[in-house]
TrEMBL record:
It comes from Glutamicibacter uratoxydans (Arthrobacter uratoxydans). Pathway: Purine metabolism; urate degradation; (S)-allantoin from urate: step 3/3. It catalyses: 5-hydroxy-2-oxo-4-ureido-2,5-dihydro-1H-imidazole-5-carboxylate + H(+) = (S)-allantoin + CO2. Its EC number is 4.1.1.97. The keyword Lyase applies. The keyword Membrane does not apply. This is 2-oxo-4-hydroxy-4-carboxy-5-ureidoimidazoline decarboxylase.
Amino acid sequence: MHLNVFNEVSESEAAEVLRPCIDIERWINDLVSARPFSTLEELNESAARSAQPFNQEEIAAALAHHPRIGERASGDSQEANLSRGEQSTLDLNADVSARLAVANREYEERFDRVFLIRAAGRSSEEILAECQRRLGNTDEAELAEVADQLRQIALLRLQDAVKN
């Protein structure tokens, strides 16, 4: 959607443009109420500010919409389509898929949530290495990393959702 159109649509229509970026009501409401934006840079800066910080409840709500890394998102929602696209460049041969399944299981046992990482622009090996590194995090440090990954994903998706 063009920035001018985003600025002019109803609040509910603007919220529906933002929801696939990250389904956190506060973030969506902050951006909808801050309209109009003069530039994409202004929109992106506002989005980044509003994402600092995501609290634990917001993180849990957002993670409910994310598939495990290496697993195909199900459904026809825009968010599922975005997730499939973001993971489409991963080399998911049998060996990598098996290693990702083990890494996902270890992570979920350690932190009791799905492993989340911005997949766009990363290789399968980089994702596996990051998962192994993050398994050594404290609960607090890992929560901060998850929040950062959610911010990165939201901002990347926003750049695709609203353009000049």
